[in-house]
Structures are given as structure tokens and as C-alpha cells.
Amino acid sequence: MSQFVLEQQNVEAAAQQKPRERIRRLVWKICIATLILMAIGSATRVMNAGLACPDWPLCYGELVPTKQMNFQVFLEWFHRLDAALIGVSAIILMGLSWWYRQSLPRWLPWGSTFALFLIVFQGVLGGLTVTELLRFDIVTAHLGTALLFFTTLLVIGTALTPYQGTGTVGKLPWLGLTASVLVYVQSLLGALVGSRWALHQCFGISQLCAVMYSHIGGVVPPTVATLLVVIVSWRTPALHPALRRLANMAGGLLVLQIVLGVATFRLHLQVEPLTVSHQAVGAALLGVLVGFTVLALRDWVTCRDVNAYVVGVTSTAISE
User: What is the extent of the structural domain holding 119?
Assistant: First the structure.
């Protein structure tokens, strides 16, 4: 009888895990598509293709502008296509989250709804970038919202990933959170520099140099915070291997990002692949730090709950 009950419980547990696993895989696929979308968006900007399609949401009044198609038109058109596919995927994600909400964490349907809101808002900003002729504040907000959507997906995907903490994270969750916020702010400053062409104007006619130097000087806080994450992770004994790997990845991406930034500055943005890589690596660094922070927070919460349970059991035993 007990064997039958155990088997029945295993079947029910497996049935509950299927929607969770399905949603987790969908989230990671959307994450990859979003990272590609941001890279294509950067390429569209540096190749002066932001207005290659003069109308929105169609391109020259067509779904596929075959007659006007060239490299610049293709970049802008493909950017919109990828965004549309991500939007449809976000709708599916929200639908699945609410449909299977009984067997999912309570926060997931609301998290997926917030992600859908962000991608809809992102679409509106995308349209405004065309109708407002690439106004710098809208372009900056466009990238900022994309990064926030990317971050939201990473939080959802990492929170759904199977993970058993070791309880040794200490202050790493807060270091990771600080580094993530600082990298996000630095990314916004980079978007502002790019959308206002501040580097070109500073070198050319000595204007907007303050905007350019704010991004250069802004490198210091996120660099220090990320290095602290790496160093403290190295010095933390019995740290979970996943956290150690993510910390090492963050360190490697940080070095690569600095090298790309220096090369981009030295070459005055004349090599487009370098500029695109600089933004893509920045987004990847943000993603790694967010993943690190979520796992570290899960580790910290587990440790706190275990300690509270031990204290409760000890207090009960003493009182008896």
C-alpha cells in the first residue's frame, strides 16, 4: 500500500514539474532571442539604418519590402521581425503561466505579465523611434526597456532552475545586486552616448564631451563592484560551483568589455563590429550578474530558513 502511495506521489510530482520545465525552456529561448535583438538593434544604429524603414509597423507599407530591400533595410526589418516573434512568445509565456498557475510558484503569472507589459511598452517605444526620427531620449529608453525585459526573463528563468544552495553566500547576494544595478546604469549611459553620437561630436566639434566622459568615468563603479563579486566568490569556502562559475564568467566578460570599450574609443567608433560587440557583451555581463544574484539570493533564503528552523527546534527542546 505504501509503495502504491509513493508511486502515486511521484507521478503527481512529475506532472507538476512538466509545466514548470516547459515554461523555463521557453523563457531561456526568449532570453537568447532578446540578446540577439539588442545586438541587431545596436547594428541598426551604428549602420545608420534606424530610419531605413520610414513607416511603422510595416516597412514601406509591406510586411516584406522586397523591392526596397538592401542591407540597411534588412537590418531594420529583421529587427522588427525578431521583436514581433519575442512579443508573441511573451504572450504565450503569460498564457501558460496563468493556465498552469495551480502548479507553479504564485509569483510566476505576475512576473510573466510584467514581462509582457515591458515588451508591449518596448514596441511602442520602437514605433516612436521611427515617428520621432530617432530622438535620443526615446532611443535611450528603448534600450533601457529592452535590458529591463531581458533582466526580468533572466530572473524568471534562474528562479525556475533547479538549485540547492550550500548556505555559504554571506553578503554575495547584495554585492551581486549592487553590481547588476551599476552595470544597468552604465548601459543606459552608453545608450545615451550612442543615441546622441556624443563621441563623434566631442572629437569633431568639441560638443557633448560631458556626456561622453560621464560614460567613461561611469566605468569605475560597476568595475569595482563586479571585481568584488569575483574576489569574494573566490575567497568564499564551499561556495556552490554554479555561483563560482558565474562569478568567473562575470570577471571574464568584464575584462572583455573593457578591452572592447578602449578599442571602440581609440578607433572613434569606425569599426562597427566592435561597437556592436561592446553593447552585446555589456548585456551579457548584466545577464550573468543577474543570474548570479538570483541564485545567491535563493541560497541566502534557504540558509535563513534552515537557521530559523534550527532555532525554533532548539527553543522548543529547551522549553520542554
Answer: 1-162
